[in-house]
Design goal:
Layout lengths: L4 E5 L3 H11 L4 E6 L13 H4 L2 E8 L2 E7 L2 H7 L9 E5 L3 H12 L3 E9 L2 E8 L5 E5 L2 H8 L2
Parallel strand pairs: 1-4, 5-8
Antiparallel strand pairs: 2-3, 3-4, 6-7, 7-8
Length: 151
């Protein structure tokens, strides 16, 4: 069993997918739209909803990120999609050059919380919120951090 990051959007999944594909130098992209399946005549989707992304996956640097839209008919049950700071994507154990490359790309149109820099706990640490409201943290020594500082 694996756990992966799955991002949900309110109609911006395709834009987010293209952005992450570019800045993360994705090696594989797969995508299915809601309209790729037959319509239920009792609950037809509007054209806008049919074009939304039902499920997608990008692969980069041995990682996987999944992205989808949550159409209005689903939000009626799940609640509205909101940006927040309760979840972040932590990029760990990357070399400083790769961290800087991803950081620079992801920060375009976003907000840098802490620029990539050397800290007492990491040669390459930084945090940002990208233009989609997703928080990212980079820590080149994350696997060693708890061993060195934890109890």
């Amino acid at each position: 069993m694996k756990a992966i990051t799955y991002l949900q959007f309110d109609g911006r999944a395709e834009e987010a997918l293209a952005f992450y594909e570019k800045v993360l130098s994705a090696t594989s992209i797969k995508m299915v739209r809601f309209g790729d399946f037959g319509q239920d005549p009792n609950a037809p989707l509007r054209e806008e909803e049919q074009n939304m992304i039902m499920e997608s996956r990008i692969e980069f640097s041995g990682n996987c990120l999944m992205i989808s839209d949550v159409p209005p008919f689903m939000q009626a049950m799940t609640g509205e999609i909101t940006n927040g700071n309760a979840i972040l994507i932590s990029m760990i154990d990357g070399n400083p050059e790769m961290n800087q490359q991803y950081f620079d790309g992801l920060s375009e149109g976003g907000t840098v919380i802490m620029p990539i820099s050397s800290t007492p706990w990491s040669a390459s640490f930084g945090m940002l919120v990208d233009k989609f409201g997703v928080m990212w943290k980079f820590n080149s020594q994350a696997s060693e951090f708890l061993d060195d500082y934890g109890k």
